[in-house]
Amino acid sequence: MTENYSKGRQAAEKAFGKTQAPLLAGDRAREEVSSVELARQEKTARLRQARLAKEAEDAAAGPAGDSGKIL
């Protein structure tokens, strides 16, 4: 749907678009940072869970100094 606007309206639309472009770019950047932060938090939680499971497994296996190796 194309509409024919006056030259003044076209200039105003163009100027408005130029002022909005940095704001929209900023919004996209914030969304990207948010998604990176969320991914980092999920990875940290996953690694923490794995570490705690390993520590519990090691604790259930026996004393910390006994690795079962013969030197």
Sheet with the most strands, sense and barrel status:
none
Into which percentage range does the β-strand content fall? under 5%
Question: What distance lies between the first and last C-alpha atoms, to the nearest angstrom?
Answer: 82 Å
- Summarize model confidence as the mean pLDDT: 84
Which regions are unreliable across 5 or more consecutive residues at pLDDT < 50?
none
SSE order: H
Shape: rod-shaped
H/I helix tally: 1
What is the SS-derived class?
mainly alpha
What is the gyration radius calculated from CA atoms? 29 Å
Instruction: Give the % helix.
Output: over 70%
Protein model, in words:
- By secondary structure, the chain is mainly alpha-helical.
- The chain has a domain at 21-59.
- The chain contains one helix and no strands.
- The termini are far apart.
- The mean pLDDT is 84.
What descriptors fit this protein?
71 residues; mainly alpha; 1 helix
Task: Give the helix/strand layout.
Blueprint: H1 7-61
What can be said about this structure in brief?
Residues 27-45 have a biased composition (Basic and acidic residues). The protein has 71 residues and is an all-alpha fold.
